[in-house]
Each structure stands twice: as C-alpha cells, then as structure tokens.
Write a structure and sequence with these properties.
Belongs to the universal stress protein A family. Pfam families: Usp (PF00582). This is Stress-inducible protein. By secondary structure, this protein is an alpha/beta fold. It folds into two domains: 145 residues, 3-Layer(aba) Sandwich (Rossmann fold); 122 residues, Rossmann fold (3-Layer(aba) Sandwich), CATH 3.40.50.12370. The protein has eight helices and ten strands. It has a ten-stranded mixed β-sheet, with helices on both faces. Helix 3 packs parallel to helix 4. The longest helix has 17 residues. The protein starts with 6 loop residues before the first strand and ends with a strand.
Amino acid sequence: MSTDTRTITVGIDGSRPSLAAADWAAREAQRRRLPLRLLHAGTEPAVSGVDFDIDETNEIDVPAGCTRAALDRAAIELSYAHPALDIIARRTAAPAVPALLAAAVEAETLVLGSRGRTGSAGFPVGSVALGVAARADRPVVLVRAGELPEDERVPVVDGSPPSTAPYLPVVLGLDPDASADDLIGYAFDTAAVRSAPLHVVHPWTLPTSTLRPWRHRFPGTTVREHRVDGDPGPRLLEASTRAGLLVVGRRSGRGPGRAARSLIRHADCPVAVVPHD
C-alpha cells in the first residue's frame, strides 16, 4: 500500500494515557504530513461515534444531539491545537484488540497509551496495549500518561519557545541475530523526520557493515553507535532518559521478548515496537 493512503492512528478510550497518546500522534502526523485517525473501539456508551468534517476555517460540523464524550473532545481539541491537520474520528463496536489490529494494517504507525509512572518499578502496560504491540503488522508506539511536547526536545535554557528546540535523539536497540531492515529503517526514518541524531545501542558482535547502507541512505542523520558487552538493556534504559523515542524490535509472529517488555515498562520516553523478520 502506498504511503499516501496511510495514517497515524491512535486508540482513544478517554484515559489520560490515551489522550497523551493522541497528542503525541497528532505531532507525529504533522511531522510526517499524514492524516490523523482517532479510533474508539468497544461497546462503552460514553463515546459517541461521529465522523467530523474539519474545513479550512477550522469549523467542525457536529450533528445535533451528539454528546461530546472522549472521542469527540479529543477530535475538537486536537483540531484547534493543529488546525492544518486532517483529522478523522471514528468509533467501532468491535473489541479493542482486533479493531486496533485491523486499523494498524492501514496505518503508518499505531499509537496507544500506557499507564502513568508508579515509581522505580516502572509503569504497568494495559492488556490491550501489550496485545496489540505483540501482534500488529505495523510499528506500535506506546505513550505514557503525562508525556508532554517538550519532553521530546532538548531542554530550553535561554527562554526561547520549547517548540523551537532541537529534538532529542532517537535511540535504537539492535539485536545482531535478527534480519532487521524494517526496524533499522523505521529508526533512521524517524530520526530524519525530526532532524534528530540516531543513537544505536548494540552488542559488540554486530558486524560493522550492518548500518553502512542506512548511513548512505540517510546522509543527513548523525549516527552514534554504542557497543556494549553483555545485556544492552541497562544501557538502553539509561539512554531513554535523554531520548525522544526508544525503538525496539520484535520478530514477526512473536510478541516482544523479555528484554523488550522490560524496556516497555521502564523506559523514560515513548517506546516504538517494530515488527521485523
């Protein structure tokens, strides 16, 4: 499927994590110049199923009698925050996991909320988020509650607007035992879209030629390699405290491994889970 038919899709359930995910997804859609699709799945009566038409004047045509519940409010608020963004809000009565997996097929990226911090033990990840991240055919980004736009940028110290600051690095955790072109390509592309550096954390056993074709394909992206002896997990967690996005892989047809699940729970930034061969 060509990229011009794809969207950035986010699951909305009214929770704080899902609203933080929606805000992150809107920024990603704007960066990639793609439509934003808001999707509420399930049979909860709190959300009305409405498609909004948002024109050049930022007017939203809401049918009479519509209650402005979670999906409605998210669409309206995001349209005002991002007036140039093409936003589609939809609801389905299908169960959340199969509905989100189906939506992922047509998405460039699927974005879901994770729960907020619970201290040094990290934060729990809901069964829907884990179930989708384990099976989706496309990258799934997990965003915790409390994530703010300025969190993905270099801290401002001179009083300038946070939105003008450079992006923090994209961090890629790379498994040398996998044929991971999809994973590496996603990380390089994401860094390029943000004009951010890419930091690659991998074991010493990774062949030096692995990243060479990607460096040629993305000559404007600054790449820093961090070779570690042993488990790269602690280094990735440390790197996530100074990253805008952590990118990890999972084998197609399998859920995230133990190391990836630990990173999903404990990382200090949004985590992209990318399926690969």
